[in-house]
Amino acid sequence: MTLTLDPATEQLLQQELATGRYREPSELIAHALDLVKAERAGSEAMNDWLLRNKDAIGRALDASSAARDRGEGYSPEEVKAHFAQRRAARSRRAA
């Protein structure tokens, strides 16, 4: 099989080969195809999960919308502040 690559793809391939991780282009292409297969399998698994849980997800979204309509929940500013606090706490623990 002969492949024709556009210049940008050829440059990316050459850059990856230059790292020394792959001995030849076919190894890099095989690895890339493995990643494509894994991504597809993950996507299919996610789609299966979504289909199995479609009704429950719909009920949760309906309940969330109803709570929002009643004025319950958090403002965007409160959500941002909450996550900022969590990030700061994580940073303190990591230090």
In words, what does this structure look like?
This protein is mostly helical and 95 residues long. It is built from four helices and no strands. 0% of the residues are buried. Helix content is 79%, strand content 0%. The longest helix is centred in the middle third of the chain and has 28 residues, at 25-52. The chain is elongated and about 60 Å long. The protein has one domain (7-94). It has helices at 7-18, 25-52, 54-69, 76-94. The model has no long low-confidence stretch (mean pLDDT 94).
Structure in a nutshell:
The chain is an all-alpha fold. It has helices spanning 7-18, 25-52, 54-69, 76-94.
Distinctive features:
95 residues; mainly alpha; 79% helix; 4 helices
List the topology elements.
Blueprint: H1 7-18, H2 25-52, H3 54-69, H4 76-94
**Overall number of structural domains:** 1
Strand content is under 5%
Q: Helix and strand succession?
A: HHHH
Backbone shape:
elongated
Structural class: mainly alpha
- Average pLDDT figure: 94
Summarize the amount of helix as a percent range.
over 70%
Radius of gyration: 23 Å
Low-confidence stretches: none
Largest sheet: none
Task: Give the termini separation.
Answer: 53 Å
Total beta strands: 0
Per DSSP, the total helix count is: 4
